[in-house]
């Protein structure tokens, strides 16, 4: 009954004409910004920040948050159709979404991701509305040791999901970790592995690395094959997923939404880790893990559900603890402070209209996105009918514009080209790019929490196994490694027996 009363307070704010207008503007703008490769919701929110000076705080937050989770919806479109991940979580969707598009199933991929995104967002909203105070306390129990162990689990999971070769995936994770430490050391302030290049003193740009490894590498690879169309003979008619598709979708969607909702409340974890973990879990529980990366529908729905659930639940540490879990949440936190609102655990009671108005606007915004996205599937899939000679120069132009717009740096365009060549070389050597991206993203978090944990424990490694949550994460990592090794040994023994088996004449 108390929850219904709170929702009624939120409805009195979100269901006003102003609330509905700014919600519609936010989610619509976010959806279109998310479709543009390399742009994403962060630049859009940053550009809209001065506009919020003239708005009521509630209306400003409704619009900015709509841009954020609207961008999560839109990001899947370029990933599935063109293999262009504008954000790190969208890189996971590329792994199976783009192969589905090449198989002529782009419409089905877009449809199921829209549904799974809505389910993930809905679960995240339920957590925000019903369990925000409790989950905020749970997030406070995570210390440096827990975060370090969680990152280790994510990296091991990424290695397990990276392909048939665990060793190759693990090597890519380590390479990503090395790329992640390029730049200024947070503790000492000294530059590491910059080779005197000032443009990378603040780390390599994530969007430049991701767009190069996935987008430019795909352009080079396809242009080399001299193909004319991305999906020849593709029908303009949008098909609905079959009963078999839906049967294979609902469990991964729920599992991904659950992981995303939990990761979203952990400051620093967020949608990226949630997407990679969701994909790794689906590959782990699948009876045919070797087929992931070839167009498995489970590899599309689980990360998308996790991504959108984390986008919603990430508001919990931001609003209740004042701890932003991502750059987008940091800008949202700044917008709140501009209006004189300091996020604390008492915000839910002291600013009930703001908190519950946001919760209700999340429900409205996701419903609008669901209604908008499904009819537009037919429009998006027509991109696949554009000849490559026209489409790919446009893609490269969007990549350059998107990357340049983030830091206004021409050097970032050079980085895109460099990592594009690297990504193409990795394809030739059958090295998976996804574990590299995850290692690159989580490298600073791994290093900083390891240092902090060692400092607090005075150099004792026992801190990682003395704390129950940290020990559980490390135990799960060890079990994954043992299971992968056991599967490798069984496969080797099976191959050996087949070789020794005499051939009957």
From TrEMBL:
Chain segments annotated as transmembrane: 7-29, 35-55, 108-132, 138-158, 256-281, 321-342, 354-378, 390-421, 469-489
Keyword vocabulary terms for this entry: Membrane, Transmembrane, Transmembrane helix
Report the residue ranges that make up the DUF112 domain in this protein.
20-438
The organism's superkingdom is given as Bacteria
Signal peptide per UniProt: none
PANTHER family listed in its UniProt record: TRICARBOXYLIC TRANSPORT PROTEIN (PTHR35342)
Q: What is this protein called?
A: Tripartite tricarboxylate transporter permease
Species this protein is from: Pararhizobium mangrovi
């Amino acid at each position: 009954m108390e929850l219904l009363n709170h929702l009624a307070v939120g409805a009195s704010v979100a269901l006003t004409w102003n609330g509905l207008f700014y919600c519609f503007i936010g989610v619509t703008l976010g959806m279109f910004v998310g479709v543009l490769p390399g742009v994403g919701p962060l630049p859009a929110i940053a550009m809209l920040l001065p506009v919020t000076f003239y708005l009521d705080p509630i209306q400003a937050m409704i619009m900015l948050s709509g841009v954020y989770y609207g961008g999560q919806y839109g990001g899947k479109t370029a990933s599935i159709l063109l293999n262009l991940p504008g954000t790190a979580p969208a890189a996971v969707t590329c792994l199976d979404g783009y192969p589905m598009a090449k198989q002529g199933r782009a419409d089905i991929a877009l449809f199921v991701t829209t549904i799974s995104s809505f389910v993930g967002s809905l679960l995240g909203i339920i957590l925000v509305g019903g369990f925000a105070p409790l989950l905020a306390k749970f997030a406070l129990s995570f210390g440096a040791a827990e975060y370090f162990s969680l990152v280790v689990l994510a990296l091991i999971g990424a290695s397990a999901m990276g392909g048939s070769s665990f060793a190759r995936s693990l090597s890519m994770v380590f390479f990503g970790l090395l790329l992640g430490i390029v730049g200024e050391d947070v503790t000492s302030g000294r530059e590491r592995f910059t080779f005197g290049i000032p443009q990378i003193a603040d780390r390599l740009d994530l969007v430049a690395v991701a767009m190069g490894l996935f987008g430019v590498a795909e352009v080079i690879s396809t242009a080399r094959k001299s193909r004319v169309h991305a999906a020849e003979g593709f029908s303009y008619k949008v098909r609905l997923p079959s009963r078999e598709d839906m049967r294979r979708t609902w469990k991964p969607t729920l599992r991904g939404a659950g992981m995303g909702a939990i990761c979203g409340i952990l400051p620093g974890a967020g949608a990226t880790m949630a997407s990679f973990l969701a994909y790794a879990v689906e590959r782990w529980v699948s009876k045919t893990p070797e087929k992931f990366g070839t167009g498995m529908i489970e590899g599309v729905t689980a990360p998308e559900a996790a991504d959108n659930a984390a986008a919603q639940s990430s508001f919990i540490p931001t609003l209740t603890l004042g701890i932003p879990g991502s750059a987008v949440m940091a800008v949202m936190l700044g917008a709140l402070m501009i209006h004189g609102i300091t996020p604390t655990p008492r915000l839910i009671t002291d600013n009930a209209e703001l908190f519950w108005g946001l919760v209700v606007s999340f429900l409205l915004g996701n419903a609008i996105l669901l209604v908008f996205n499904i009819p537009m599937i037919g429009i998006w899939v027509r991109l696949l009918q554009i000849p490559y000679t026209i489409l790919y120069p446009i893609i490269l132009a969007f990549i350059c514009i998107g990357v340049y717009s983030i830091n206004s740096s021409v050097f970032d365009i050079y980085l895109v080209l460099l990592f594009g060549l690297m990504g193409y070389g990795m394809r030739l050597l059958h090295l998976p790019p996804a574990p590299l991206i995850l290692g690159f993203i989580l490298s600073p978090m791994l290093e900083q929490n390891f240092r902090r944990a060692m400092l607090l424990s005075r150099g004792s490694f026992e801190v990682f196994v003395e704390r129950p949550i940290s020990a559980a994460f490390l135990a799960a990592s060890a079990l994954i490694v043992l299971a992968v090794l056991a599967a490798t040994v069984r496969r080797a023994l099976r191959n050996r027996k087949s070789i020794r088996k005499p051939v009957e004449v």
